[in-house]
């Protein structure tokens, strides 16, 4: 006898609810259909369901996301970095207290106290006909952030080595829920032949029909639930092994909306509006925001960053603010709309010559006109760089390019050999936006504060009527 095991999954929703009513309806119907046919079926989420760019996630600090997952009927989830490092310690500790599903993340550990009750390294489930399935979740080890919040993420490979033999002995099928990224998934598949299936995320890769690496099926469904994933594993009870593996993704835009989910989302939006409606400041005049011009608000925000971090200098890109502030009462909802990024302050150490290269790069159109998606940035474009604690003298040559003439740090010219502490947005410590910042060996991140928390301070200090 052969038995089919059905797994449906989502990954990297990032609180982008545009397709959620369609996805929710599809998952509910598929699970209901499979169960009605006496087939074994489970729903998984691979992390980054929460993203504080959305007012619902911001207002409820992820709890509303869990409520939405409960409503759909998820069985198991793992956590992504957006759950792990954008929430204060206590909020992550209690995030899944009311979850109707199990949470597996074998490499997440609490530094300061016992593990949360919901946190399990592995989960074992059984099919209708008794096939034992072991599920293990892993998340990306961003310990420079996690440890500032009282958590530690152990190395994924070491964690797998710790649990894989036990899972192999006690279960028939092993599934990894991996919020590690495609390269890590492929490496794990090469090293751990015991793993039958890796459902992935984090790097937003889309594998429409999966990918086989050795005997492991790897799959993932992109981002924002534009697609829903499905895996079908076929177990032969006589041979006592899996004999077939299939992976598919379904385009969510073709699916019907679930009216109950639409109503629930609307209720959450209304409640979020109330929670975020608290006044922050009252202003008489509109506050101008420009991406390619110096403005008072960006200068004040950059000054606040320098003062708050006690850095020698600071620099921020004007594209962090997405809209102007209208006269009248400014609420937390306005702050969140105008600065939605889950971006933290950071201080790096740079030699003077490295800082000069950063300044030069920040003046180029390649950077200021870059349309960035990712690294926590949720805006449209990088925009002009604003400086604090330093005066940058430039000259525009005949070719239209702006060149650095000289840089003053306080009352002194920049010293190429001196080390300076430089405050900026943490997005510049990733990738190659500003290589010198990314390569700095000393990085001090500030958590759980976001730059919008400093924006609140700036508005109250410099723009309030009171």
Automatic annotation (TrEMBL):
It comes from the Bacteria. Gene3D superfamilies: 3.60.21.10, 5'-Nucleotidase, C-terminal domain. InterPro entries: 5'-Nucleotdase_C (IPR008334), 5'-Nucleotdase_C_sf (IPR036907), 5_nucleotidase/apyrase (IPR006179), Calcineurin-like_PHP (IPR004843), Metallo-depent_PP-like (IPR029052), Pesterase_YunD (IPR011240). Keywords: Hydrolase, Nucleotide-binding, Signal. Residues 289-426 form the 5'-Nucleotidase C-terminal domain. Transmembrane segments: none annotated. Residues 9-205 form the Calcineurin-like phosphoesterase domain. Belongs to the 5'-nucleotidase family. This is Bifunctional metallophosphatase/5'-nucleotidase. It comes from Virgibacillus kekensis.
């Amino acid at each position: 006898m052969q038995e089919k095991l059905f797994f449906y999954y989502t990954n990297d929703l990032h609180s982008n609810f545009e397709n959620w009513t369609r996805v929710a309806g599809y998952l509910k119907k598929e699970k209901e259909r499979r169960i009605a046919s006496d087939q074994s079926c489970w729903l998984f989420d691979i992390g980054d369901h929460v993203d504080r760019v959305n007012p619902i996630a911001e207002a409820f600090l992820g709890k509303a996301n869990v409520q939405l997952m409960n409503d759909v009927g998820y069985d198991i989830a793992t956590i992504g970095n957006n759950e792990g490092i954008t929430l204060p310690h206590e909020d992550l500790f209690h995030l899944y207290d009311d979850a109707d599903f199990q949470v597996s993340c074998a490499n997440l550990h609490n530094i300061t106290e016992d593990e949360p009750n919901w946190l399990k390294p592995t989960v074992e489930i059984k099919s209708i006909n008794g096939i034992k399935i072991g599920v293990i979740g892993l998340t990306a080890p961003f310990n420079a952030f996690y440890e500032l919040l009282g958590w530690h993420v152990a190395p994924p490979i070491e964690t797998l080595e710790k649990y894989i033999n036990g899972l192999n002995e006690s279960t028939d099928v092993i599934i990894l829920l991996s919020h590690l990224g495609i390269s890590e998934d492929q490496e794990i598949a090469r090293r751990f032949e015991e793993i039958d299936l890796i459902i992935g995320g984090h790097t937003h890769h889309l594998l429409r029909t999966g990918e086989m690496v050795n005997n492991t099926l790897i799959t993932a469904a992109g981002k924002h639930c534009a697609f829903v994933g499905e895996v079908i594993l076929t177990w032969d009870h006589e041979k006592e092994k899996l004999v077939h593996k299939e992976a598919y993704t379904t385009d969510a835009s073709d699916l019907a909306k679930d009216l109950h989910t639409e109503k629930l989302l609307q209720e959450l939006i209304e409640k979020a509006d109330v929670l975020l409606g608290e006044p922050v400041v009252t202003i008489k005049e509109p506050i101008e925001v420009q991406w390619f011009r110096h403005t008072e608000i960006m200068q004040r925000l950059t000054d606040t960053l320098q003062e708050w971090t006690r850095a020698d200098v600071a620099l921020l890109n004007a594209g962090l603010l997405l809209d102007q502030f209208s006269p009248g009462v400014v609420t937390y909802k306005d702050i969140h709309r105008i600065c939605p990024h889950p971006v933290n302050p950071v201080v790096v150490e740079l030699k003077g010559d490295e800082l000069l290269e950063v300044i030069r790069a920040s003046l180029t159109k390649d950077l200021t006109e870059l349309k960035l998606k990712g690294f926590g940035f949720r805006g449209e474009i990088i925009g002009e760089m604003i400086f604090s604690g330093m005066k940058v003298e430039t000259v525009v040559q005949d070719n239209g390019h702006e060149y650095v003439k000289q840089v003053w740090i306080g009352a002194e010219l920049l010293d190429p050999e001196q080390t300076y502490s430089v405050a900026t947005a943490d997005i510049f410590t990733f990738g190659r936006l500003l290589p010198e910042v990314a390569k700095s060996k000393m990085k001090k991140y500030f958590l759980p504060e976001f730059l919008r928390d400093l924006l609140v301070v700036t508005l109250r200090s410099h723009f309030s009527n009171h």
